[in-house]
Amino acid sequence: MFSTFVSFAQETSYEITYQKSSNGKIIENQDLIKVFATQNHVLLSTENIESNKATLPFERTLVDIKDLSFYQSATLSSNKSISFKDNEAIKNQKLELLPDTKKILGYVCKKAKTIINSNTIDIWYTNEVNVKASPLVLGVNLGLVLEITRNGNSTTQAIKIQKKKSKSTINSKIENTVDALTYKDLLWKSRFTTIPVFKNEIINFSSESKSNDSVIRFANGTIALRKIQIPSQAKSSIAFLDLMEQSNGDAYDRTGSVFIIPISNSKQTFHSGLEKGKDALPFYENGNGRKYQGVVATSTYEPLTELMRFFTPFGIKQYNHIQLKDKSWEDQVAYRQEITDVLQQYAGQEVWIGAFIGNYDKGGHKISMNLTLHPEDLPSKSTKLFPLFNTTNVMEMAGQDYGTMFDVDKGLEVKISLSQPLKNAKIRYITTGHGGWENGDEFVPKKNTILMNGKEVFQFTPWRQDCGSYRQFNPASGNFPNGLSSSDYSRANWCPGMVTTPTYIDLGDLPAGEYTFQVKIPQGKPEGGSFSSWNVSGILIGE
């Protein structure tokens, strides 16, 4: 890398101002494009950049007309800039010159045309001004480009041309020159905030699993937990969760969950169970004689807030040595899901973020995970979040019971009290059925019914029929005599190697008062040592 200051001899120059329009209408509150041109050099900038009002990051382009090269530079922060040099792009432009003419700002313009990434670009340029310039690098060698239109509806047009009375200098600071791909990557990443959570962490089953200063492990290594500060900007940003997974020994498809446990909370949380054992959590009983630890909210307890439900594929990466004709296995599976409506509730707070993968393998799975916050002008809402239930037994490997409470009519029931009205209320509901044999609920469609105060508010049958689309993630998925692989089979709202997306249940406006929410599922009966269960989580969200 190097840093230099480029300064050119004084030459007669022009300042051209461009504005953008869409479908014939001028775009409001736009940052006008400013182009400074001499016979030998062109600087592409904007009005805000030149007046030191630009929002970071921003870019400028410096074109050398003599050798048709250009520098692209980006200011990423107050103390960091990068750039790259391109010697070929302008020379390789394929432009069709057409006979059409029209006048723009009193100058006779000719037309050129090109197609880029399936977009048709019309370029109008004039040779009546003694400079070559363009609001883009595109067409800069034709003459002075006064208008560029993409697909007939998006136009950038010159609105003012000023010839400088005295000769001037084009200056540009070229810093930290990198290759083009590095430039694009650094520029892209500077547009949002990345919060690292886990990097190549092992989620396995082993008494040898150890915690360290930043990552705490529970349930024999099947849970990894880390304390994270959620920036206050999460309140006004679109938030995503990214998780990458590879097998580190385990060949099977497994249930995974990413969740939040609040720290500054007056209620008891799931963290008590992690530290003291499952019996430290409040029990839920539905009349079937079993006790389920920590699955429903009470007046003094808050269950896990689930961000993402994911499922590992069969042995990705670790078992890629298994060869099949015309199959090229993926090296990792990348799960990505928007979590804005949940994460923004924790803006400015310190929380525990955890990841669970249910497995009994010493090698287990390897994961990396981060959160990204993308600036957005979101509508200002005072939203509230109430975790209602979560039957995913993330402490399965520490004895927490499975979600088998749906074997009686009561199913899952939770009672809450709203001290204030809740507008536009909805339940963020995630459900997956389990029982991995022929008659188990994993492979048998079952209707989920949600009731509020005894009245049905929603019902559907969760089912995924697209699992065969992800065969390339599943090298260790066995092939059966009928020509199918295990990963091909349709399942109760999940596929090996995929995320289960939430279902949103609209409840309307809820007045203050007492509410009982109930989930009913006709859970199948056990056969021998095999049994069915359902992992359901629900979060009440409103304004």
TrEMBL record:
Residue ranges occupied by any Peptide-N-glycosidase F N-terminal domain in the UniProt entry: 194-373
Molecular-function annotations in GO: oxidoreductase activity, acting on paired donors, with incorporation or reduction of molecular oxygen, reduced ascorbate as one donor, and incorporation of one atom of oxygen
Keywords carried by this UniProt record: Disulfide bond
Protein origin, superkingdom: Bacteria
SMART domains: N-glycanase_N
Record-linked Pfam families: N-glycanase_C, N-glycanase_N, PNGase_F-II_N
Protein name as catalogued: GLPGLI family protein
Organism field: Flavobacterium urocaniciphilum
